[in-house]
Amino acid sequence: MVRKARKLLLAGLLALSFLPLSLAYSVIIGSAAGATLLVLIPEVVLMGPFGQLTLFGEVSLEGLIQNSVATIPIVLGVFAFALLSIFLTPHLLFRLSQRFRFAKEFLGALAIFLSWPERVLFSSRRMKNAKSLRGENSGGKLMPTLRISAQRAKAIRLRFALIAKSATPSSETAIDFNGVEIAGLDMGKMSFQIAAGELVVITGPTGSGKTTLLQASCGLAAKFYGRQVTGQIKVFGLSVNENIAELSSLVSLVPQEPGEYFMAELVGEELFGVTEHYLGTQDLLELHISSLSQAEAVFVAITRALNPLPKALLLDEPFAALDSRASAQLVSLLSDLISQGVTVVLAEHRIREVGVLSPRFLKLQNGLEEGAWRPKIIVPEPALLQLNQHQVLRVIFEELRRGERLLGKTAFTVQQGEILAISGPNGSGKTALLESIFFGPAKREIYGVTLEAAAKPDLIALVPESLEGFFISRTLREELKRVDQVAKVLPGFTEHNFKSICVNTELTPELLATDPNKLSFGTRLSLAIAMQLSHKPKVLLLDEPVKGFDPVMRANVARVLRLTVQAGTSIIFTSQDSQFVFDAADRELAIQGQELVERTPGS
C-alpha cells in the first residue's frame, strides 16, 4: 500500500510538472501576450531557415491563464494514465485474462501498454548498474534500455499467450519428434519419443541447444524465439503448430532464469490462485520478487508451473543455482511427480543429483543420442607462483541487510593472488555480499586506500549473477571489439579471454554475428567473465561463475582463474559447486548463522 501511495504521489508530481513546462514554452515562443501585461522580454528574431520565428515578447496574465487551461487535458491525461498503470498492474490483468479468456489478447496488450513506464525505469536502473560494472562513464544507453524494455514486454506477451485452454490428450506419448530440424543448431534431423510418466535428462555441452530443444518441445521455439523448426513435433498427440494455449494446459516450461518472466511485485501476487505450494514457497509470499535468491525464484516458478498440475513438466537447468538442501528438496518433488504419472524432462549438467531417480539420459552433441554426455574433464593446472604476500583488499561492515539481516559485523581480508570462495545456503546473502563490496556500503580498502563510491573495474570488477543489461552491442563481434576499446587493451584481447574459457566453442561468422543477449546462458556468462578480465582488475568478483556450465567449462574456468592470479589479481567468487570450490579456491568462507566461518575449500 505504501508503495502504491508513493507511485501515486510521483504520478501527481509528474502530471503537474507539465503545467510549468507548458507555461515556460508559451513564454519562449511568444504566445503569452494579452491585455494585462506582466513583463516584457526583448524579442529575439532567429536567423537562417528559422528567420520567420520570433522568441519571447509580452507576457500577460491572460496569456498565462489561457495556456494553463489548454494544458489541463494533458495533465489529466497523464495523471489518468498513471492511475491506470498503478492499479491495473500486469499481474492483475493476467488474473482477469484467466477468468475472461476471450479478452486475453486485449488485456495482454493493455498490460504491455500500461507497464511501459515501469519497464523503462526498471531497464534504466539495470543499465546504470551495468555501466558501472563495465566501467563506462559515457555513451548512450537509450537503445539498450529500450531493448531490455522490449524483452520485458515480450515476456508479458508470452505469459498471456500461455493462459491455458482445456485440451484432451489424444496419445500416450508425451513428446514425439519426427524428423525435426532446428535452424542454427548443428543437431541434424531428430526423431525420438518420450513416454508419459517418464523422467528424461537431456545432457550435452554448454551451448549445444538443450534450452532450444525444450522450447521446441512446447511450441515456443518457433512462435516466440524466432527459430525455424521443420518436421513434426507432437505433445500428447497435439501438434505444437496448433493453438499454443491448448498445449500449455498439458505441458509447463520453467526457464533457466525465471525471474525475467515474473510480472508481480510480491511473491504472493505472483502465486495468486495457487492451490498447492511446493518447495516451501508458502514461506516466501510476503517477499518482494526482486529480493529472491536465484534458487527461490526457481522454486516460485516451479510452484506456478505445477498449478494446475500439468501432464508434462520441462525444466531448464533447475539444479544450477541450488545448494545441497534445496537440491534434495527438488529431487524429492520430482520423485513425487513421477509417481503421479507426470512426465518430467530436464536439461541438466548436474546429473549426479537427479541420477538417484534412475532417469533416461539423452545426449545432445552434434545430434541427439541415447545415453549421458560424459566428457573428458581437464584437471586444473596448479598455481605456479605464491604471490600471497601483500594484503590487497580489506572488507568491513557492521551488518549486511537486504530487507532482513543477512550478516552481522564482519571483517575479512584478501591477499595478492589469492582465490577466496564464499559459500552458504540459498538466500544467505552471497550475492548481496559481493554487491556491497563493489557498490558499497561495505567499507573497502584497496592497498590501504578507502573507496568512497562504487568501484571502477580496473580496481574491483564484478560479474553479476543476473546479466540483464550487461551486453549492449548488436553482435558478439561488436561487443568483443567494444570491450577492448573500453578496457584499453590490444585488439583481440577480450576474444582471447573468451576462447580460453569456451575452448570447445568455435567463433564462427554466424556466432560472431549473433546478438550476445541471445546466446545460451553459459556462453553469455563466459563472455561476461572474459569482458571483466580485460580490465585487469586488482580484485575480480564472480557471482556463481559456473552456474549452468558443463564439467569441461567448469574445469576451464578453474584453470583460467588459476592463470589469472599469476598476474597478481585476487579473486572472490560465490558458488554452490563444492567440486569447483575445491578445484579453484585457496580459501573458503562459509556463511553460517549470519557469520562468515573459515573452512577447508570444498569440504
What is the gist of this entry?
It contains 21 helices and 26 strands. With 603 residues, it is α/β, with parallel strands linked by helices. The strands form seven sheets. A six-stranded mixed β-sheet has the order 10-11-12-7-13-14, with helices on both faces.
Question: How would you describe the overall organization of this protein?
Answer:
By secondary structure, the protein is of the alpha/beta class. The chain has 3 domains: 2-160, no CATH class; 164-370, 3-Layer(aba) Sandwich (Rossmann fold), CATH 3.40.50; 391-599, Rossmann fold (3-Layer(aba) Sandwich). The protein has a 6-stranded mixed sheet with strand order 10-11-12-7-13-14, sandwiched between helices. A 6-stranded mixed sheet has the order 22-23-24-19-25-26, with helices on both faces. Strand 11, helix 13 and strand 12 (343-347) form a beta-alpha-beta unit. It starts with a helix and ends with a strand. The relative contact order is 0.09.
Find the CATH topology of the largest domain: Rossmann fold
CATH architecture of the largest domain: 3-Layer(aba) Sandwich
CATH superfamily of the largest domain: P-loop containing nucleotide triphosphate hydrolases
In spatial order, strands of the major sheet run: 10-11-12-7-13-14
What percent of the residues sit in helical stretches (DSSP H or I)?
Answer: 25-40%
In total, how many domains does the architecture comprise? 3
- Compute the average pLDDT: 86
